[in-house]
Amino acid sequence: MWNWQQPDWPNFKWDSNRLILAEREYLLGSGVLLGTVKHLDRDGQNYVAIKVMCNEAITTSEIEGEILDRASVQSSIQRQLGLAAIDRRVRPKERGIAEMMVNLHGTFAAPLTEDLLFTWHRMIMVGSNIDGVGDYRTGDEAMQVVSGSLIKPRVHFEAPPSRQVKYEMARFIDWFNRVGVDGSSPLPALTRAGIAHLYFESIHPFEDGNGRIGRALADKALAQALGHASITSLATTILRYRKDYYAALEAASRQNEITKWLAWFGGVAIESGRRTTALTEFLIEKTKLLDRLRGQLNDRQEKALLRVMEEGPAGFKGGLSAGKYVAITGASPATATRDLADLVAKEALARTGELKHARYHLTIQPRALRRVIVTEQGTVVEV
């Protein structure tokens, strides 16, 4: 039996004592993040918001096995926010997920409605050939999440029949609004967001796109609890633990006692906030470094340095090589070697290795980030 087949559905149960410290840690970390963002000017704040929305759009799609073009997604987000003048050609899928992220960011405080869910679904399914875009599923066949061969598939989850979806979703939407900050039975941030995601995924109301919309609902719940648009890297963090994510959802879909699921989700949400804080701190240090080097770099060096910084705190995977520098700037190998040596001398880059094995890394040291879990005793630890 699945959770929706249990007699106590959808009356989820959980041990709130195990989540007390996690809820507190999440709110504390969110406060630190907000304080850090406030140190940025408007351009810096826009940069963080766009970067996080772009990362979330890319990763929430990648969780479902869909690989999108990062530049196109970012360009579409910037244009919708009125921050890009160039009308770059963007594929429908990139434009659609970007539209959903901007809509989520701008309407986080609004109550959840069926129309909003249908709007999101139309956005992410633009160009799709599935039936029922912008509406709940209606097929007679069972909606199942399966893996393995066609001959011997493994069923990880089976959702309620299509005939029950409209009723179940009406109950879900009522619950989501009732337990919100302004509702009659408010829940703490992590608890509400974790339940919202699991509850929605258990109904699986759409023919496709349920994972992306379910994660957006978790973001909406977190944003409403904090009173500002979410800039935490929830999907980006979930992608790092995708296998565990699916296992945790599958285990939680078999019963309505969901303490383990909420503890798992809480650890991911806390870590996601820390990742955005690290990105913001990196941006502050990046600005300081560029200010220090103003007027000291040639056009090639500045172009390459900005390109490395665009990759975020970790820079290029494996570091910047002389070959990559040539590709970015068009310089000759000899000029690239001189430019890179000068960047090292100016302490903009640090070198590891020698000769053809030399690699260059930003001297900005990103905050060390490790996995966050909520233990059975309710403590929040890094592992």
What's a quick, concise take on this entry?
This protein has 383 residues and is mainly alpha-helical. Helix content is 55%, strand content 7%. A hairpin with a 5-residue loop joins strand 5 (372-374) and strand 6.
Please provide a written account of the structure.
The chain is mainly alpha-helical. The protein has two domains: 3-279, Orthogonal Bundle (Fic-like fold); 302-383, Arc Repressor Mutant, subunit A (Orthogonal Bundle). The chain contains 14 helices and six strands. The longest helix has 35 residues, at 259-293. 40% of the residues are buried. The mean pLDDT is 94.
The total strand number stands at 6
Estimate the helix proportion, in percent.
55-70%
User: Quaternary arrangement of the chains shown?
Assistant: single chain
- Give the DSSP E fraction (strand runs of 2 or more residues): 5-15%
Query: What would CATH call the architecture of the largest domain?
Result: Orthogonal Bundle
Q: Which radius of gyration do the C-alpha atoms yield?
A: 23 Å
Instruction: Characterize the main sheet.
Output: 2 strands, antiparallel
User: What is the total domain count?
Assistant: 2
- What's the pLDDT, averaged over the residues? 94
- Which spans of ≥5 residues are poorly predicted at pLDDT below 50? none
**Please, how many helices?**
14
Regarding CATH, which class of the largest domain?
Answer: Mainly Alpha
Q: Separation of termini? A: 34 Å
Corresponding CATH superfamily of the largest domain: Fido-like domain
Shape: globular
The helix-strand sequence is HHHHHEEHHHHHHHHHEEEE
Using the coordinates shown, work out and report the CATH topology of the largest domain.
Fic-like fold
Question: Helix- and strand-based class?
Answer: mainly alpha
The strand line-up of the biggest sheet is: 1-2
